[in-house]
Amino acid sequence: MRRHHTGWRLAGLSIGWMTGVAWQLHERALNAQWVYAASMVVGVLGLMLAWRWRKGFVLALIGMAALGFGSAGWRASDRLHEVLPSSLEGADLVVTGLVESLPQQGPSGIRFRLEVEAATSNGEPVTIPSLLALGWYSGFHEDAVLTRPQIELGAGQRWRFGVRLKQPHGNLNPNGFDYELHLLEQGVRATGHVRDAVPPRLLARDAGHPIERLRQRVRDAIDAAVADRRTAGVLAALAVGDQSAIDREDWDLFRNTGIAHLVSISGLHITMFAWLAGMVIASVWRRSRQAALWLPAQQAARWGGLFAASAYAVFSGWGVPSQRTVCMLAAVTVLQALGRRWPWPLVLMGAAVVVSAMDPWALLQAGFWLSFVAVGLLMASGPVVAGRTESGGGLANDADSRLPAGHEGSKLGRHLRGEFRSQVIATLGLTPLTLVFFQQVSVVGFLANLVAIPLVTLVITPLAMLGVFASPLWLAGAWVVERMCWALAWLATWPGAVWTVPVAPGWAQLAGLIGAALLVMPIPWRTRALAVPLALPLLMPSVQRPAPGSFELLAADVGQGTAVLIRTNHHLLVYDTGPQYSQDSDAGQRVLLPLLRSRGETRIDRLMLSHRDTDHVGGAKSLLQGMAVTDMWSSLEDSHPLLALAPAGSRCIAGQRWDWDGVKFEVLQPPSHVYDSRQKSNAVSCVLRVIGDHGTALLTGDIEREQEAWLVANQSDVLRSDVLVVPHHGSKTSSTPAFIDAVHPRVAVFQAGYRNRFDHPAPVVKARYDERHITTVDSPSCGAWQWQSGQLPLPPGQGVCQRDAEARYWHHGSRQ
Asked: 795 and 694, same structural domain?
């Protein structure tokens, strides 16, 4: 009984710690560092008093929460202490440092992290953050340099570069990827790109980071041995944890078929490696009588397996799943060496505490929860045998030895049944969590994983690892990967292969998770039946849409480019699709598709592309391929390749009108004769006015002063609007005083990138709006901006900026 109470107390203390860490992660701004130091002192004192006071468990809980809060806050303060001075943003600097990790190779160049050893500006030493994320680009990229990225750039090398840097800043959209959080977790406090004003120079090849150099050699060897880049990328991801080596198309395939977790280093791979290493060590150990007398072979196998698993986890990049698995293996190994056995929830919670102590921001990552919940579900759902709960996926799975007499069956049969059961549990139990984080789940994932789990775990991964010693094994692994991808591509073509849902409210997410836990736990079916009503609000959430006659406008944060969503009661219009960032990345794939799916959109009723510039149509191809589009209106020339992807198309011509759900749409520009004048693309930008019962918006593309003058002269009676998406991102060539006065907006929205090379919005242009007391909103300081047409009158601050709605201390501009 005493041991039982001890277990509950330790579990409670773990929950207290996690609560404190989570509390700190939700701070909008950091406190002074002494506040976190005081919190840790209070936590330690609380634990000491609770130790002396037998009934002080509540005090111990408070102490652990304070300790977790203070520890996470101290780490955050220490990490954010490094700041790139604003005066050095965009300046030409010369930096010398070590390449800290594997460079990520892409079609447009190389991205890598650099540990700074020295930095100068105009020959004078300057202080900059110690870890930088740099890009060395060529070809199609706005920061491309004349010198091509060096093939010999590798981990552990010392280089001297000319660079331009900026403070960490990323796009911020509803339910989107938080790039600034990612940089904080990685310890990166400035980003930038290599310049060729100072020729890059390799100073030393083997200057540091021996493990990263070894990973580099293995990855390079795989690339040299396997000609096919796609299969080589999968082998590199499994051998050295280089997930960037996998092509974007393959990642989409793996996600759509539900096996993405298998092609990154997961707990399954680490556990398998520990098991294989333990078998080898035990076999060798038993051959030595002296070794066996000094330490039993079974214990030697456990400690050796733990050491091998730790080494592999470090070698493969030390991700959250690897950390979790190593912590759990270490806990079980130590407990077994001490002759103790903890309940599985306690081992799981202990591992979570250790991982969050090393990396508190892991709690905000989907991988953390998917990893821990997967193991917890498998452990909790074990069948009750002889009064004990078996672990379906435990660390020391000895279920075979505990089966009742007469039920042994063949070992192969039991193994197959166990694998099938584990897959059913993982699929059912993780589906709600997958929907919470990604708003989609693979319907064919169960079937795909039945084949892929044993194939990747028992065939491809061992071949990828053993190829280090015999490179022909990589060719065999590549052959298997190619066949697996062919089968997955076939599954992905099935109708309804991927099921998407909009983001559900918090209560529905919690209910769905509880329902999933009930469904897989070994409890009576009467109780399990509650899972159905609990999960329904998550599986089929309601979507809030504007009332008839009203519309919702969302100006997405896509960087230097334009993308606006207009939603009425039953229709959706997408105006422009943002920029193409590189050859393998664009705003459609990275921003718009996830944003639309999270909002419950399954079809775009009209895609309007204002003109051909890549900062307006760069994401259109991904959008057309990733979501159903009814028709597309644009000013593109007849030979433009995007027209071939659209199911139906029409040119924008002034005078076109239509009505959706009581909301009127009018095309104001260009007039038909402009298409024959061979003017530059900005001159034929489609200008669209949206008129609801309680508000209007004007979308202007990249029109310049000539087009503005034509609109004022010919369309002045219909220009007035409450919201203006500012022409040409706030360029000096647009926003003439006469045009601003004719529109007379209440809010002016500037869609532009942070520290963009065009200096948009121009200070003189922004001043024109300020002089007229017009509320201005810009993407870098606001993120995505949302507005309902019924929100009138519109005082300053009306509408929702994503950076205000989800402000956290790591966001740019929120760290004071």
From this structure: yes
Domain holding 187, by residue range, is 86-208
Which range in 65-69, 274-278, 378-382 is most confidently predicted, on average pLDDT? 65-69
In a domain, 265, yes or no: no
pTM metric for this prediction: 0.89
Burial 608-645, CB ≥16 within 10 A → b, else e: bbbbbbbbbbbbbbbbbebbebeebbbbbeeebebeee
Domain membership flag for residue 50:
yes
Q: Grade residue 387 by pLDDT with cuts at 50, 70 and 90.
A: very low
- Please tell me whether residues 668 and 524 are part of one structural domain: no
Q: Which long-range contacts (CB under 8 A, 24 or more apart) does 708-715 make?
A: 708/734, 708/735, 708/736, 708/738, 708/739, 709/736, 709/738, 709/739, 710/669, 710/671, 711/668, 711/669, 711/687, 711/739, 711/742, 712/738, 712/739, 712/742, 715/654, 715/668, 715/669
Distance (Å, whole) CA 269 – CA 271: 5
- How many independent structural domains does the chain possess? 4
Residue-level pLDDT at 406: 43
Report the amino acid identity of residue 661. D
pLDDT, mean of residues 225-241: 91
What tens digit of pLDDT does each residue of 709-723 get? Answer: 999 999 988 999 999
Q: What one-character DSSP code corresponds to residue 604?
A: E
Query: What is the secondary structure of 155-202 as a DSSP string?
Result: TT-EEEEEEEEE-------TT---HHHHHHHHT--EEEEEESSS--EE
Of the pLDDT bands very low, low, confident and very high (cuts 50, 70, 90), residue 369 is confident
Last residue of a domain, one of 208, 228, 261: 208
